[in-house]
Amino acid sequence: MASKPKLLAFAGSLRKESVNKKLVQVAAKGAEQAGAEVTFIDLVDYPLPILNQDDEQANGAPENAKKLHQLFAESDGFLLASPEYNGGLSAALKNLIDWLSRPSSGEPALASFQGKVVSLMSASPGGLGGIRALPNVRFILDGLGCITLPKQLALSKAYEAFDDQGGLVNNVHQETALKLGRNVVEMVKKLKD
Ligand SMILES: Cc1cc2nc3c(=O)[nH]c(=O)nc-3n(C[C@H](O)[C@H](O)[C@H](O)COP(=O)(O)O)c2cc1C
């Protein structure tokens, strides 16, 4: 393929010291090493109101939803790290998905999701690494038309998992996270060639 795959990397967390933001940035390195152009977005830079259809009808989508729509629609895929909140995905991530699932002027329906290749991961200070959130996220994204790759990573004990440079202390985990990034690039290239 002529142009580099364009990927978005983001976490469903607003927390400054988010371990999910750290994890997805390792996967982003793997994608860059495999030839992708990766844009990391921090959801705290795109505050969105909780979607209320009455407000949406009265005022349209907020500016941040429009900006995110464009970023998502222009990308070939995503690297997504989801925190686990009470066994599911965070409200910030669900609200983002809800806003992006709404029609946007000039874009085909679900342009933010249809055909986007996704690697999923999660990180948690607990022993299960947030693995209960991932089937939730996978189900939602698949329903919206994403191609969610089977390989995933649930990183347990995540508060102790990173070194000062943002890498994973455990080499196997580091390699797995890098590979999640590479997997998206390889699939995007296969689909586009
Ligand atoms: C409302 C809430 C619910 C949580 N529920 C879970 C949970 O079900 N499983 C889990 O492993 N951690 C749970 N946690 C702890 C998070 O894994 C932890 O706060 C983690 O740091 C969140 O990811 P982040 O660092 O990327 O923000 C919960 C945290 C909050 C604030």
TrEMBL record:
<keyword id="KW-0288">FMN</keyword>
<dbReference type="GO" id="GO:0010181">
    <property type="term" value="F:FMN binding"/>
</dbReference>
<dbReference type="InterPro" id="IPR050712">
    <property type="entry name" value="NAD(P)H-dep_reductase"/>
</dbReference>
<keyword id="KW-0285">Flavoprotein</keyword>
<dbReference type="GO" id="GO:0016491">
    <property type="term" value="F:oxidoreductase activity"/>
</dbReference>
<dbReference type="InterPro" id="IPR005025">
    <property type="entry name" value="FMN_Rdtase-like_dom"/>
</dbReference>
<dbReference type="InterPro" id="IPR029039">
    <property type="entry name" value="Flavoprotein-like_sf"/>
</dbReference>
<protein>
    <submittedName>
        <fullName>NAD(P)H-dependent oxidoreductase</fullName>
    </submittedName>
</protein>
<feature type="domain" description="NADPH-dependent FMN reductase-like">
    <location>
        <begin position="5"/>
        <end position="159"/>
    </location>
</feature>
<dbReference type="Pfam" id="PF03358">
    <property type="entry name" value="FMN_red"/>
</dbReference>
<dbReference type="GO" id="GO:0005829">
    <property type="term" value="C:cytosol"/>
</dbReference>
